[in-house]
Task: structure prediction
Amino acid sequence: MMGEWKWARWTVCGLMLSVSSGWAYEYDTDDSTQGAGPDAAWRVEARWDQVDEISTKDIHHYTTDPRYISPMVSYVPEDANVPSPRDVLGYTVGTEGILTRPDDEIKYFEALAAASPHVSLQIMGPTEEGRNMHLVVVTDAGNQAQLDQMRAYTAALADPRKTTAKEAADIIQKAKPIMHITAGLHSPETGPPEMVMELAYRLAVSKHPDIEKIRKNVILLITPVTDVDGRAKVVDWYYRYLKEYDSREYMPSMSPPYWGKYTYHDNNRDGLQMSQLLTQNYMKAFLDWHPVYSIDLHESVPLMYVSGGTGPYNPTIDPLTVTEWQWAASYEMTELQKHNMPGVWTWGFYTGWNPSYLLWITNNHNSMGRFYETFGNLSAKTMERDLTTRKFVGKAVTEKAWYRADPPDEKVMWSLRNNTNYMQSGVLASLKLTSNNGAMLLDNFYRKGINGINAGKKEGGAYAWVIPTDQPGKSRLAYLINQLRKHAIEVHRATEDFETEEGQFKTGDFVVRLDQPYGRHATNLLNDQLFPKDAEHRPYDDVSWTFGRHYKVNTTKIEDASIQSLSGLTMVTEPVSFPGTVGGSDPVAYAVKHDGSNTLLSARFQLRKYKVSAAKESFEADGETFPAGSWIIPHKRGLKGLLSQIASDHMISFDALSSIPEVATQELDLPRIALYHNWVSTQNDGWVRFSLEDAGIPYDYIADYTVRTANLRGKYDVIIMAHQGGASSKAMLIGRDSKFGPQSYVPSEEFPSHGFVDNARDITGGLGFQGLQNLETFLSKGGTLLMLGSSGRLATDFGLVRNVNTSRGRVDTPGSSIQTKILRTDHPIGYGYDEVTHVFRTNGPIYSVPKRFDHWVVMQYGTKPIRDDEEDEEKETTEETPDDESTENSDGEKSDEKSKKPAGKFLLSGYVDNQASLEKQAAILDIPRNDGGRVVLYSFNPMHRHLNHGDHNFVFNALLYWNDYPEPEPKDHEGLAKD
Result:
């Protein structure tokens, strides 16, 4: 061992290692390679290396059962010149009770890269909190010297239009397959960042023939901590609150309230939006390197799941990729099974349908992306785990199946080291597979590009999509085009008018030709998705993501092959914007059409010093027609310059008026906005925060303490509550378990990462009944509550509103575009939308009201009359009834029972089960109270993962017109929400 590394070992080794040795198995120091002892196999594997006996002894001590380790990872090599993790950190990877902070992990990789010619370290990009994501490159010194050339090879293979088959064949003989593994995406899954340190060291120094072959034949990229901000918080959390607990049955929350600045678990659902720096850094790395294979390392299910997917698979993914998934999974299972490692399986966990995961950036771009779920304790503690109740696809995980030939025991003693052993064994198996089949993987990568191009030329299919420029909501149109380009999809713009069988199009319209390497991905993003109704297993996540529907942008599928022969197309090479105009030289006033632009609210905040009024109905002025909700801004000196800036930034046009129109108006008062969060789940409020900030909308971020103690109405006009997923109203009320409090989330010298994004001296407890009372007082003084998705249960279950029934029924809409109809066309929440529109709905509450309160319904699901004439006054509208298949016509549309006229499709994209229980129910309710307050309930989440931009205005309108909601008279009865 090199003397210069010993200091670190003994300096850091003072960390407490209080571990019972009762579960550890014996470490055999006999160097013999003969015999049947548990160490015989690994001694054979280690015969090419000098062994680090101390680290190796630790491995066997912290492994709870000899079945939970493979020979390759049963020892740590010794190298006189290159430091191991123990040399730098002072402990062996997988040591009981120790987690490594991200800064220390990077210090190790810096030391490894400085000492080994086979390792280099690069920065991928920054995080929102100012840390850096890193990329560790592990390959032999010869490959390290040619990294730029190797990247050029895979870039050439990525576009077969520029690389002939002969050129590709030559490249494949010289190129090395690039593989990218990511660790620590989900921060409480603590094992992967630990494991990759030992993996990188092993690959850098071992003389084992398999390792030397991997080093020579593969270029491995490792992102050691993908969510660096989250890892810092989680490790601090572990040392602050979890280290002394030995049982998962009695522990504080395993996770701090935040991981990244905006995203929590959903940082692995940003692959389509690419809104977070983490995702953008990953995408940049993909385009820089074009890895042919990626693995994302997770931990959750016993003992190790290697992804394959149950299906239905995403139909736009090349069949070659699907075959590669199964091929790699089978190889990994075989490699681990030959060492009798139980509990390794595939198939029965997720579908393979949704393309929004981080690793699917590779699948979406003709590479192969897979993931592991290795069993973990979400900490560094060793615990007994009971698996008797764990089921997947309805089958116990301890049962034998064709996809799990050797199941785990019903109870296992599980350690962080076990986790490391399984995961590292799996990665080494995949690296071995890649080292032996690099030419095939490179050839597949090239051929998938060819297949993508040819799919866009296939007779009888689509050849392109056209996205017209002449449509409202220019900010959303620009966003769609720019999103496609973020995905490396080529977009052209017409330089002259043109015509196809689908219609006539104009100069400036956008064309997405499908005869490009990522043409199938373009189809995936622009086409509707219909999740098979007869699928054997329920969807794993959102089942639709159609960009045109999500953004409320019109797109046209072109099935006319002539579009690929158009000469008047120019590639879009810069971000697209549609700067607005400011008319007139000396007008009396300016007018802004409310065309559904997502930027109106932020523009109003920029105009905070000026009076802005909104028309309550449509009007005509100076030869133009302006819809209800349009703005009128009296001209003042100096205003035009500000309007020019807003027009450019927000893509809004200001029309000059020669006189003030004679139309009823309402002044647009700026609201004081608060976004409430609890400390139990910040997942969805993180997306709301991101969307508000992205739109430039100021708000205060408040938590339980503020609601319990503050004069809310004195500070705020509107309080937003984010969707709470499946959390019950009780969970919202009581918060984190107070028996573990007080639990501080403020930064300290010892735990510096805490205190971001919000902080409190005690985050246990919750809103409580005092908080509920304060919300009641806020409403009674004229405040407005906007309750997105399931957060509305707090209002309906605890009496903030009356006469609203909440039910989930048996409806299943797992991320689907559902038809809706605006019933109150005079209500500002619906400004800028067509009367018949649609929303993106994940599962959530179904709201219904008695007939006498139908006037509260702003928007309903479907277009059928909200009630039949004979419907009983008090009939519950959420009665569970089966789907009425007989009302579907041949196009899958619903027909009005009386008129027999098609009412349009109810399901536009995705999946719906038990449609009859959702149809005609309230999508948005505006509930006025006698005391002047308002509660707006959304039975969907209009701010879902920064994805459904077309629904954002249902919230932005509510904020923009917050004190101008109309007061409709009940048709049959008088009565309000609260007596």
Notes: The two ends are 80 Å apart (CA to CA). DSSP finds 29 helices and 38 strands in the chain. Residues 589-667 form one domain.
